[in-house]
């Protein structure tokens, strides 16, 4: 009964900022609701567990054509994914990703950064991006581009104090993310400069 | 072991409650037994072949037993168990889950002391100490137990209502360039990355910077 | 995070392994009824391993889990199986990082730690394979606590 249902096509993985999604094209059967099931296989399963596959329960018998695989792609090794269509008792062959996927291939975008001056103090606010992320913040006094200082930050759930500024000086700040698990960093956010004595961030 | 036929309902919710590695066994009385129930307690070091009775918690009517002394080696893991007695009958032994003092303890917030000048406040943080048997015993700071220990310090300007967060590894912080004659409220939290342990924030310590000279 | 295993300085993240284990710790440990026997911590404690031997013992233990433990821990619980897969694949990644340094630094095992690891294998073989594997998996925090002391 399996051969009547075609396997899903155009199977691919979209991965940005350590969030990974498997997508595929729908299998169309007139007047019927086709469901899909997804399984994954890490290097361990391939090399040490007889090539076994592990089902992702959130994407078992789903009608969606996308599956969030982030929780299961949780080691920096090579993974394979597969999906099949199901209609009642009929199942299609598996459609398996070509080649391997490693989370080290994720694309990293610069962090959202907001810089605020509060009196003599420079403060930064960074959008939380999840537990995998740390932030590297570079800052310097305008005109002294060679004397850049840097701070590493991890839990950034609120406004974080960066440093104190000399009166009247202008300070510039930029930030990038770093993911220790894959040892990669994003590009830098645009530079923002603020001036001491209550200025708010000015895009320059 | 020559015990009576045990038909008494069992003590419930037997568990360790641990703060700064003061490890106290707690449980709830068996259902429907009213007053007069007595208990005895035993514990075991995981992987070591014997259960050990706790004499100070034999035939007690309270529903807790301090096992801090017996579980003070945080490189070991433990089980504890409670049995109830009433009118000549008893319950089964009811066990805890496996207790790992290093990961299963809760940590108190740090002690915070604040002083000020006209334009700055300086903050000194002290991590809590690990529980110890007696005041004479040598103190062990939780800083020694958790080398990756850090502090998150929150500073609130009461005038502007703006709150800043500092994340520091050492125990002192000076915040310069503040406004004279202004109230600032400081509270701090301990953050351990592995194992993942966070204390709550301490209560706020408010101080006003001196008026401009 | 950088870990020092004897001559080896290895950058590794154990936080994900720790989070994965914490998520299934109660489930796994409840499947191990034997209180009076440990695979990793008795009669020898990992905490007594000499610094020079840490690299060799760490690599042996990572290999022990990959080769002997994880494959015998399949459960009826899909969530638990997925977390075990996550931990097992993270172990592969960690062992690869430690292995690269180990080859360059020839992390030899001293006599004492060879004896310790033999005892661990003896503890393991003393039980039927499923019980031994489940007990070893339930003791993962003993291994992680020891490894994290190397930071």
UniProtKB/TrEMBL annotation, chain C:
<keyword id="KW-0964">Secreted</keyword>
<dbReference type="Pfam" id="PF00726">
    <property type="entry name" value="IL10"/>
</dbReference>
<dbReference type="InterPro" id="IPR020444">
    <property type="entry name" value="IL-24"/>
</dbReference>
<dbReference type="InterPro" id="IPR020443">
    <property type="entry name" value="IL-10/19/20/24/26"/>
</dbReference>
<feature type="disulfide bond">
    <location>
        <begin position="56"/>
        <end position="109"/>
    </location>
</feature>
<dbReference type="GO" id="GO:0005125">
    <property type="term" value="F:cytokine activity"/>
</dbReference>
<dbReference type="InterPro" id="IPR009079">
    <property type="entry name" value="4_helix_cytokine-like_core"/>
</dbReference>
<keyword id="KW-1015">Disulfide bond</keyword>
<keyword id="KW-0202">Cytokine</keyword>
<feature type="disulfide bond">
    <location>
        <begin position="55"/>
        <end position="107"/>
    </location>
</feature>
<protein>
    <recommendedName>
        <fullName>Interleukin family protein</fullName>
    </recommendedName>
</protein>
<comment type="similarity">
    <text>Belongs to the IL-10 family.</text>
</comment>
<dbReference type="GO" id="GO:0005615">
    <property type="term" value="C:extracellular space"/>
</dbReference>
<comment type="function">
    <text>Immune regulatory cytokine.</text>
</comment>
<keyword id="KW-0732">Signal</keyword>
<feature type="disulfide bond">
    <location>
        <begin position="8"/>
        <end position="101"/>
    </location>
</feature>
């Amino acid at each position: 009964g399996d051969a009547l249902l075609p396997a899903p096509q155009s199977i691919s993985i979209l991965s940005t900022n350590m969030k990974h999604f498997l997508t595929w094209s729908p299998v169309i059967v007139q007047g019927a609701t086709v469901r899909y099931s997804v399984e994954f296989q890490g290097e361990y399963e391939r090399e040490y567990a007889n090539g076994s596959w592990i089902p992702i329960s959130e994407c078992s018998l789903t009608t969606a054509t996308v599956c969030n695989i982030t929780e299961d792609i949780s080691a920096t090794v090579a993974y394979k994914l597969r999906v099949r269509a199901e209609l009642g008792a009929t199942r299609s062959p598996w459609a398996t990703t070509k080649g391997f996927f490693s989370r080290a291939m994720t694309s990293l975008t610069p962090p959202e950064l907001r810089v605020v001056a509060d009196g003599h103090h420079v403060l930064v606010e960074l959008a939380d991006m999840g537990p995998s992320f740390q932030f590297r913040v570079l800052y310097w006094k305008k005109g002294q581009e060679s004397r850049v200082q840097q701070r590493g930050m991890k839990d950034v759930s609120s406004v974080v104090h960066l440093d104190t500024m000399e009166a009247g000086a202008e300070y510039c700040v930029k930030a990038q993310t770093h993911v220790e698990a894959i040892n990669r960093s994003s590009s830098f956010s645009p530079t923002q400069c603020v001036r001491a004595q209550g200025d708010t961030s000015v895009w320059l | 072991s020559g015990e009576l036929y045990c038909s008494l309902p069992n003590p419930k919710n037997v568990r360790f409650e641990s703060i700064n590695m003061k490890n106290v066994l707690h449980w709830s009385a068996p259902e429907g037994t009213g007053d007069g129930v007595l208990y005895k307690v035993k514990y075991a070091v995981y992987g070591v072949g014997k259960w050990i009775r706790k004499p100070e918690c034999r035939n007690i009517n309270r529903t807790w037993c301090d096992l801090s002394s017996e579980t003070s080696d945080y490189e070991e893991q433990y089980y504890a168990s409670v049995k109830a007695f009433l009118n000549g009958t008893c319950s089964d032994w009811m066990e805890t889950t496996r207790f790992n003092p290093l990961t299963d303890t809760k940590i108190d917030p740090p002690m915070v002391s604040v002083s000020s000048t006209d334009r700055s406040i300086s903050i000194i943080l002290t991590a809590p100490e690990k529980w110890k048997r007696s005041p004479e015993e040598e103190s062990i700071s939780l800083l020694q137990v958790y080398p990756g220990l850090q502090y998150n310090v929150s500073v609130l300007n009461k005038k502007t209502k703006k709150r800043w967060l500092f994340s520091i590894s050492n125990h002192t912080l000076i915040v310069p360039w503040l406004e004279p004659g202004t109230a600032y409220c400081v509270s701090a939290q301990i953050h351990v990355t592995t194992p993942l342990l966070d204390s709550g924030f301490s209560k706020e310590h408010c101080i006003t910077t001196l008026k401009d000279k | 995070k950088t870990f020092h295993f004897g001559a080896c300085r290895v950058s590794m993240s154990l936080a994900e392994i720790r989070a994965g284990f914490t998520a299934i710790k109660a489930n796994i440990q409840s499947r191990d009824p034997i209180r009076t026997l440990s695979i990793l911590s008795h009669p020898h404690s990992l905490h007594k391993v000499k610094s020079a031997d840490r690299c060799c013992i760490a690599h042996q233990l990572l290999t022990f889990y990959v080769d002997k433990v994880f494959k015998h821990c399949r459960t009826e619980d899909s969530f638990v199986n997925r977390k075990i897969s996550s931990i097992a694949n993270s172990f592969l990644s960690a062992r690869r990082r430690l292995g690269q340094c180990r080859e360059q630094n020839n992390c030899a095992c001293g006599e004492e730690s060879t004896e310790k690891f033999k005892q661990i294998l003896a503890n393991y073989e003393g039980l039927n394979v499923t019980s031994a594997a489940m007990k070893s998996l339930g003791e993962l925090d003993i291994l992680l606590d020891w490894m994290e002391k190397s930071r």
